[in-house]
Amino acid sequence: MRLRALGLLGVIAGVCLLLLTLQMRGRAAGASEALAVLTTPVQTVLARINRATLGVWGTYRDWKNVRTENRRLRDEAQRLRVEALRVTETASENDRLRRLLALKQSLPLETMAGEIIAREWGGWVRSLTINRGRGDSVGRLTAVIAPDGLVGRIVDVRTGSSIVQVLTDPASTVGAHVVRTRTPGIVEGEPRGTLRFKYMARDGGNLQIGDMVVTSGLGGLFPGGIPIGRVRSIDDRGAALFSYAQLSPAVDFARIDEVLLLTGSGAARDVAASFKGDG
Prior knowledge:
The chain has helices spanning 2-25, 31-106; strands at 110-121, 125-130, 143-146, 149-157, 162-166, 173-178, 184-189, 195-200, 212-215, 227-235, 242-249, 258-263. The chain is α+β, with helices and mostly antiparallel strands. It has two domains: 1-106; 109-274, Rod shape-determining protein MreC, domain 1 (Thrombin, subunit H, Beta Barrel), CATH 2.40.10. A hairpin with a 4-residue loop joins strand 4 and strand 5. Helix 1 packs across helix 2 (31-106). The mean pLDDT is 79.
């Protein structure tokens, strides 16, 4: 096929040369017209091929430019998304720190800020590790709070860190009462990572869903008035000595990043006024 095309091209070229020769010698009448008849289709085909080639090249070049532009735009969009996430995280961190500072300034007792550096999981948060230890004069059983309420207590002090037992730990108990009714009781952690409020049945007849439970301040370990959680459900056991209420913790132990340690001799005073929306 290729040889035929080359042969045809050679024949056309030979005829063109022959006609040119005849024209120059004046031996053929109308040689120029004949030449035009033969060369015009060839020139037309060549012109079309040239235009098609240029069109294909232009299309390829435009496609390549579009791909390059799309890649640049994708990279730019990704960079902007990362920057937006950074701005959001920075704003969130600033908000947390402002709330922590406001709480620290409003408390009528000495505090120390701490940062959570690790969490122990077991289907739920079992304990927290903070970046305060013996070098910061942290004492065992120091109360730990967050802007939303009570976190727990220090149970192990190390060189540069301490372990916080959170309220949902089954070994945790806290003296508490209901803000609205003043019903006293004890908040206990449960094995499934929840909280329950244990109270005398005769004192809790008016307990309602949504009631806020706060620390009672009895025992001297935790100041009174620190939010613990809200009543989520009530287990009325009728004639039984005790009744129980399930609580939703005031603090999300999986999401907090900064805490305050209550230090100094003023740690047993009532601090209810420092927390908003306790009722």
